[in-house]
């Protein structure tokens, strides 16, 4: 039984590091309106705290993040809109990418679709070797539009073309080779490797750290807002399509969609 009052994002701070933990394991930490709202609130609190040097984004349960909450999307198409004030994924990705403080993604398991957007938006990402990834959008009749903004800034073109177009799963080692991850390590080394990175950030001067992150963002940061606007239109078009409705129905019924040969 899911406790509807329990937070979906837990917060803690220790030795200058704020940790935001996605805690919605019943739906594999899908990006529901409430989870997006709580994550945005957690980021805002951490970014406003002068005692916080960096932010860790992690999760509990069987997955890091499954991407969009398809049940919520289906309900919205049926006229049952979720919280209209909940931040969209472009807001979350922009907050992470434009933040003055480094954000480290510490994965506990697989990421899919929009969940990979969170990984790509982070400055540094560490995952266990057994974690898998997939841009599943094309297989349910939609387009990886919004997440393309952070993902194309990380992944190499050839690998990105393959995984965007096929929707196939790839492992953490392939993700690291493609530029999505900083490191893919044995599961019993994830905490130690993450801590090594955090110790490095603790030794860095906060003002210099912020300016260096801005430098790494480069001139493309100025074009990000317009890119998110354009990709948001593409995303809305395809999520409202007949193919998307068929893709969601097939997903819930655990069958292949009608276009599979």
TrEMBL record:
SUPFAM superfamilies per record: ClpP/crotonase
InterPro entries in the record: ClpP/crotonase-like_dom_sf, Enoyl-CoA_hydra/iso, Enoyl-CoA_hydra_C, Enoyl-CoA_Hydratase/Isomerase
Molecular function GO terms recorded: catalytic activity
Annotated Pfam families: ECH_1
UniProt xrefs under CDD domains: crotonase-like (cd06558)
Family the UniProt entry places it in: Belongs to the enoyl-CoA hydratase/isomerase family.
Name of this protein: Enoyl-CoA hydratase
């Amino acid at each position: 039984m899911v406790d509807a009052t329990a937070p979906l994002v837990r917060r803690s701070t220790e030795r200058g590091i704020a940790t935001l933990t996605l805690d919605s394991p019943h739906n594999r930490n899908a990006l529901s309106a409430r989870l997006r709202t709580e994550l945005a609130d957690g980021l805002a609190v951490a970014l406003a705290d002068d005692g916080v040097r960096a932010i860790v984004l992690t999760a509990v349960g069987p997955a890091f993040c499954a991407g969009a909450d398809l049940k919520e999307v289906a309900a919205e198409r049926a006229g049952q809109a979720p919280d209209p004030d909940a931040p969209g994924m472009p807001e979350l990705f922009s907050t992470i990418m434009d933040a003055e403080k480094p954000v480290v993604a510490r994965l506990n398991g697989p990421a899919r679709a929009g969940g990979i957007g969170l990984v790509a938006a982070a400055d540094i990402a560490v995952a266990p070797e057994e974690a898998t990834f997939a841009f599943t959008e094309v297989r349910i009749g939609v387009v990886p539009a919004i997440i393309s903004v952070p993902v194309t800034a990380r992944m190499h073109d050839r690998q990105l073309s393959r995984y965007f177009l096929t929707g196939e799963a790839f492992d953490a080692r392939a993700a690291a080779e493609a530029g999505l991850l900083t490191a893919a390590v044995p599961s019993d080394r994830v905490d130690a490797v993450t801590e090594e990175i955090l110790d490095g950030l603790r030794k860095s001067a906060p003002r210099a750290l912020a300016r260096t992150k801005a430098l790494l963002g480069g001139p493309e940061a100025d074009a990000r807002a317009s890119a998110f606007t354009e990709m948001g239109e593409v995303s809305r078009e395809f999520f409202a399509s007949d193919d998307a409705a068929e893709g969601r129905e097939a997903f819930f019924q655990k069958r292949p969609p009608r276009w599979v040969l």
